[in-house]
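Following up on my earlier thread - several people asked me to post the actual chain instead of describing it. Fair enough. Here it is, all 317 residues.
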Amino acid sequence: MSAQQAMPSAGRPLSAGAIALMLMLCMTWGFNQIAVKLVLPDIPPMLQAMFRSMGALPVLFIVGSLRGVKFFERDGTWKAGVIAGLMFGIEFVLIFQGLRFTPASRAVVFLYTAPFFVALGSYQVLGERLGGTQWLGLAVSFAGVALAIGVPQPNVDSQVLLGDLMIVAGAGLWAATTLVAKGTRLRFAAPEKALGYQVATSIPILGTAAWLFGESITHTPSPLSLGLMAFQAIWVVGTTFTLWFALVKTYSASKLSAFTFITPLFGVVGSYFIMHDTLSLTFGAAAVLVIAGLFLVNRPSQVAAAPRDALLNVTKT
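Reply from S.P.:
Thanks for posting it. Predicted structure:
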């Protein structure tokens, strides 16, 4: 994508509606981590991910068809769609398997390195350039996430480091999928079609991973587990992921990605009410840091507001 195409969305602050929508998405994704944990006794992780993709695919087709989306029209998006789908599937394999080796507290911190990958990639691929204030905002929000999760345990061996590396790789693929969705012809596809490529491609990847790791369902899942699987398939993947890609097409990928720092905060709050975990004053301070960082990220910068000719000189490759 050229800088000329990218700069209008790069310099556009998120609207109040976009911010409200992102808050809803982050709240959903924060609760989704709890849903995954609640289902684990009945359905192993790779099978969970595969089943939710299988359940989300017909939802995307139904909603897209009602909106007049032509899923099988030749529009030159299939190559980018398959690439995004491969990354989408491998991303979840890495994240779920990384959690086998590293504690969840470390995993959450490393997973939310993704906005930094998006910011760097957006500059190189999309021509979006964050100013110093925006980079400071990313750092402040990341510090808030780390504070909310707490200090990791001191005993870190090679196995834990392997898990950390897998989580960081998953975060990189999350960022890469976002960049592909915005920086290729996939940005012209309807959100349902763009996500449909990814969900469909992820099914055989996740199924193969489940087979390789020897996963199986040994008993009939409980009604709660089945209900939470429907929640993951219909709402999380079929609906919120579609809304995410719709937002990515309109607004700065870097600024949207920064908002995902709120997700673990919602996860901690959800764990307090559902899993009866504890909250502390430290968490309140962490929330303030995340919100302050997001305010800085979404402030209009001089770089974004500079004349187009000057930006072209800086961002053109």
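Residues 59 and 238 are 6 Å apart (CA to CA). That should answer part of your original question.
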